[in-house]
Amino acid sequence: MSEDNREELEHGGEDGSNRLAWFITGAIIGFTVALLYAPKSGKHTRRLITEKTQQGKDKVTDAVTDAGSQIAETSRDMFERGRKVVEEAADLFDRARKLVRG
After folding, report:
1. Nearest to 20 by CA among 62, 76, 52, 71
2. Apex CA 97: angle with CA 93 and CA 100, to 5°?
C-alpha cells in the first residue's frame, strides 16, 4: 500500500465528519436567526427554538456516534491488514532462512 493511500485512509474520516459538523452548526445558526426574525409570539418562538435545538443535538450526537463506529471499523480493518502483512513477511523470512541453510 502506498504512503498516499495510507494517509488517505487515516485522515479521510476526519474531513467528512468535520464538514458534517460545520454544516450542522451552520444550519442550526441559520435556523435560529430565521426564527428570531419571524413574526411569531416570543413564547411560541422560544418553544420552537427549544424543540429544534434538541432535535439538532440529537442529530449531532447520532452523527458523532456514526463517525466513531466508522473509525472503529476502519481501525479493525487496518489492524487485520497489518496482521496479514506481518504473517506474510514472517513466512517469507522462514522460507528464505530455509533456502540459505539448504
Report:
1. 62
2. 140
Answer yes or no: are the C-beta atoms of 63 and 21 closer than 8 Å: yes
pTM score of the predicted model = 0.41
Residue type, 73: E
Cα separation, 88 vs 34, in Å, equals: 60
Domains in the chain: how many in total? 1
List pLDDT tens digits, range 43-99.
887 888 788 888 888 888 888 788 888 888 888 889 999 999 999 988 888 888 888
Cα–Cα distance, 25 to 37 (Å, whole number): 19
Quote the domain boundaries for residue 40.
3-101
- Rounded Cα distance, 35 and 42, in Å: 10
User: For residue 51, which of 33, 28, 30, 24 has the smallest C-alpha distance?
Assistant: 28
Q: Which residue's C-alpha cell is 471499523?
A: 73
56 contacts 24 by C-beta, under 8 angstroms? yes
